[in-house]
Amino acid sequence: MKSSYLIPLILIVALAAFVMYSLQGGKSDEEYVQSIATHRAEMEKFMKSGTGSPFLKDSIPFDGLQYFSVDPGFRVKAKLEHIQDKKVVLLATSDGKEQKYLEYAYAVFNLAGTENRLLILELMDMGPQRGKLFLAFSDETSGQETYGAGRYLDVKKVPAATSMELDFNLAYNPYCAYNDSYSCPFPPRENILKVAIRAGEKTYHP
Question: What are the structural domain ranges in the chain?
């Protein structure tokens, strides 16, 4: 191969590697898997003995959390479609009540060969949580491998952002999956996915 072609080829390969590295948050797959393992260990410790644990609240025995194996393929970049004419959304809760939210944006992403859309909501209640984002979803594993009432993902509000990362390896159960005394909102109908998200936390089996 002529050197005049070799240099551009090296630059292209280097650029591709840099893009992949950036999309992974600057972590190799091994480092990423380890970071998820560390997060899960911290959650295990909190659930077992941390202040605010849904198990300690009513002295419920804790038998350990169950997870799918970490899969970097479930860490996706989603396009944000901001909602201009925002409407109030009422979500039913596990204790038969309702909680009020405001539409924020749709997160659009490809997974399992299909385009998926999740509605992100904004908390409206007065207090320190007001304005924070809320994302609840269910999928083809719900009620079988995962909690039947859906799972949650923590997402951060970044003004004017056009995309965000959704890491389903960090999907977790609401507290009512462990303790019936909690009030947990169910996912909106828009967030019932037709794909199996075999990532994150599984159903809790005491």
Answer: 53-191
